Amino acid sequence: MTTPFDEEPHRGPGLFSRLRSSFLTGIVVIAPVGLTVWLLWSAMGWIDGVVLPLVPDTFQPEKYIGINLRGVGLIIFLLFTIVVGWIAKGILGRSLIGFAEGLVDRMPVVRSIYSGIKQISETVFAQSERTFERACLIQYPRKGIWAIGFISTPAKGEVAEKAATSGNLLSVFVPTTPNPTSGFLLYFPEEDVTELDMSVEDAAKLVISAGLVYPSSKEDENIKNGS
User: Fold this and answer.
1) pLDDT tens-digit readout, 26-42
2) In a domain, 168, yes or no
3) Rounded to 5 degrees, what are φ and ψ at 112?
């Protein structure tokens, strides 16, 4: 593995240069791991600090084992969230949520805060259940200019009924570079959408890198594997 801090072989660096290069290379390796562990450790501590004070003393783990284990509050939070989600999927849970949201809609300031947080939560966490199906090429913003898009779902309801087209419509999300979370939702006739063999992840990397990180084709992979 090469790094930006590897010394060039023709220079013949001295001992200090080699030590400096090794130190900077070590920083490149350690920093991502260390920051990731620190963030996770800090997040667990913050969740413990919020959740554990809400747990009755009878159920406090520290009372039985004598030490405060970090992460217990996170486990309790995960279990509690799973139970709440399970209840919310039922008829009674949906009724309670509808009643509570009806009350929130009558509160001017609270209504705005709640709706904003709800939209963000649905956008972020619903990705595990609803993801883009395929990557594609479409001619946008005019014919002759090609852009990468992500096929979402076939158009339905009023959009499909009132669109002046003889065939099916596909909803395509066209992301912006280098921030693919923003973009445009466009509806294209199915025959104008060219599906790509590359995965959605590879297409996203291509968009984020502004075309610098290009996914390897199947032929390139076969050449590397010697087949």
Assistant:
1) 888 788 888 888 888 88
2) yes
3) -65, -45
Identify the domain containing residue 167 by its residue range. Answer: 134-216
208 in a domain, yes or no?
yes
Phi-psi region of 187 (alpha: psi -120 to 50; beta: other; left: phi over 0): beta
Q: Is residue 99 part of a domain?
A: no
Amino acid at the residue 102: G
Find the angle CA(22)-CA(36)-CA(205) to the nearest 5 degrees: 90
Cα–Cα dist 84/72, whole Å: 18
Q: Per the structure, how many domains does the chain have?
A: 1
Which residues, listed in sequence order, are joined to residue 183 by a DSSP beta bridge? 175
Distance of alpha carbon 168 from alpha carbon 186, whole angstroms: 14
The DSSP secondary-structure symbol of 171 reads E
Name the residue among 160, 187, 163 with its Cα closest to residue 173: 187
Q: Is the peptide bond before 175 cis (omega within 30 degrees of 0)?
A: no
Q: Is residue 109 part of a domain?
A: no
**How much is the pTM?**
0.46
Indicate whether 68 pLDDT > 80: no
DSSP annotation string for 82-115: HHHHHHHTSHHHHHHHHHHHHHHTT-HHHHHHHH
Length of the chain: 227
